[in-house]
Each structure stands twice: as structure tokens, then as C-alpha cells.
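REQUEST ID: PR-0412
SUBMITTED BY: lab tech R.K.
PRIORITY: routine
TASK: structure prediction, single protein chain
INPUT:
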Amino acid sequence: MNETLTAIAGCVPLATPTLSNEEAEATAELFAALGDPHRVKIVNLIVTSQAAVCVCNLTQPLGLAQPTVSHHMKKLVDAGLLEREQRGKWAFFSLNHEAVSKLAGLIDFEGDNR
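STATUS: complete
OUTPUT:
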């Protein structure tokens, strides 16, 4: 398994009858990655973009310095929500669609487990 997908890969729907300690920890890590308003805004900017986004294009909309944006991007990549592609000296980020599908399933309280 890809190490950067650990958090998202270990998540199960919250409506699951029981969560193992590992599943609960992975799910908490995912929510922690989204627990910062700047990271939520980053995900929003990437979701609404037509193509992969360079970190250099996020500093102005976020009002943050490049090192701070890079820190937030690393947290989102480590959680498995974003994918990173190196193009020369610039890093471009896109949404990990598999992770987003899994994230949507996490909060499906109307599933078969009710």
C-alpha cells in the first residue's frame, strides 16, 4: 500500500457497527487533515480548478507564504486527499478522486448499517 494513503485507506464508514482502533485512528487522521480552515480552502480551490494546481498559485488566494502553503499541502497529501506531481522545480496538486469517494462514504449515515 502507498504510504501516503494510510489515513484514507484505513477509513471505514462511521455508520459501521464497530470500528477497530486502527480504523478509528485512520479516520481521525483524515478529519484532522481537514481540521484547518486553510486546508479546507485549499481543497475547495483544487476541486474547483480545471487542472492540477501549482503551489505558487495558492499563496495569493490563501494570503499565506509559500512555506506555509507547502506545509498544508504536505498534510493533505499525507492524508491521501491530494496527489502531488513534480514538474521541474514546481509541485502541482490534484484531488485524489478515490480518496474523495471514500471520504463521502465515511459520512453516509443512511447506509445499510442503520
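NOTES: The chain is about 50% helix and 10% strand.
REVIEWED BY: pending
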